[in-house]
Design a protein that fits this description.
This protein has helices at about 1-5, 10-20, 30-40, 45-55, 65-70, 100-125, 130-135, 135-145, 150-160, 170-175, 180-190, 195-205, 210-220, 225-235, 240-250, 255-265, 270-280, 285-300, 300-310, 315-325; strands at about 80-85, 90-95. The protein is mainly α and about 325 residues long. Helix 2 (about 10-20) runs antiparallel to helix 3 (about 30-40) and helix 6 (about 100-125) crosses helix 8. The N and C termini lie far apart (about 80 Å).
Length: about 325
């Protein structure tokens, strides 16, 4: 027991034990604090009491006395351990990690405080674009999960005006809470990295088909993530007629025809006959090449047979590709 007392002066430790503000006794285990000073409990029992109290305090709002108490436990030494073997290494694992529990509870309180600060700023009309950029992303994402629709719109607009892509956790939370929102779709259009794409994919799992279609359609206009947008539309096409129509229409687009062809080839649509018809009858060179590419990428015997039937009368500029694909 003297280990912890070497970290606190006798006077400071006594002050911690004796200072019991009104109303605090319901949250802090004062008898454990007394035992810490007097050494009346063995190490394992004391550690259990301290650990349990540090965890239980996580459910409170975090009074000043509780905060001081937990801060005093951040350097609490480990007395009680259990043996564990991992990949041939002998490890001693704390049974009651008091310091870790105290640190976690303090972190939970800090996170709640950040969320409360965001809520106060929004309600006071102070959540400007500069604050939107500076806010802790994890705190902002947690606030978004429970905010009202009008407040969410204000937040989304502030993030958009900040002219900087939001963190992936924030983008995902907004996409879930405000599916189809103009501001959210604009934020998706400005997303630039794989993390943001992963967040949008995760968020889409909780959206209905119409909202998913809107989200992925917007992403096809995002230069950095357009391919992912088209691919997602392909996965949606058998369940949403609008997604299928958009893919067919894009075959003739010189910018997006290749991406649309890939998406169609990977979709669950029955498309061989339609692709062969477009390949033979279309007067648009981009559409013909995209249709041929989709057949090649589909890779089934029926798709190959369609390409073979067309190859004899293929346009000159497609013959080289067809020869390579059918080789």
């Amino acid at each position: 027991m003297m280990t912890i007392l070497t970290r606190l002066s006798r006077v400071a430790a006594l002050a911690l034990v004796c200072w019991i503000p009104a109303g605090a006794a319901a949250t802090v285990d004062w008898s454990a604090r007394q035992a810490l000073w007097e050494g009346t409990l063995d190490a394992a029992e004391l550690e259990l009491r301290l650990y349990r109290n540090a965890v239980e305090l996580r459910q409170t709002s975090g009074s000043e006395s509780s905060r001081v108490w937990l801060q005093s436990l951040l350097d609490y030494p480990v007395h009680t351990t259990r043996e564990q073997y991992d990949a041939g290494h002998h490890l001693l694992i704390p049974v009651y990690p008091v310091a870790t529990a105290a640190r976690t509870t303090l972190a939970v309180w800090a996170a709640r405080k950040e969320v409360a600060a965001i809520d106060e700023a929004v309600r006071a009309g102070r959540f400007a674009p500069t604050l939107a950029k500076a806010a802790n992303p994890s705190a902002l994402a947690r606030w978004i999960e429970t905010a009202t629709a009008p407040d969410l719109e204000r937040i989304a607009t502030s993030l958009l005006e900040a002219n900087a892509p939001p963190a992936e956790s924030v983008l995902a939370a907004l996409a879930r809470r405000l599916p189809g929102s103009t501001a959210v779709l604009s934020l998706a259009r400005s997303a630039v990295d794989a993390a943001s794409l992963a967040a949008l994919k995760q968020a889409s799992l909780s959206l209905d088909l119409s909202a998913q279609y809107q989200l992925w359609s917007v992403l096809t206009d995002n230069a950095a993530l357009a391919g992912a947008g088209w691919s997602a539309l392909g996965q949606l096409a058998h369940r949403h007629p609008g997604a299928a129509a958009r893919l067919w229409q894009a075959l003739s687009d010189p910018r997006h025809g290749t991406s649309a062809a890939r998406a169609l080839a990977d979709s669950r649509l029955a498309l061989i006959d339609e692709l062969e018809t477009r390949l033979r009858l279309s007067g648009n060179a981009n559409e013909q090449r995209s249709a041929a590419l989709a057949l090649y990428l589909r890779g089934t015997p029926a798709a190959r047979a369609a390409l073979e039937r067309y190859s004899a009368s293929a346009r000159t500029d497609l013959q080289q590709d067809l020869a390579r694909w059918l080789h």
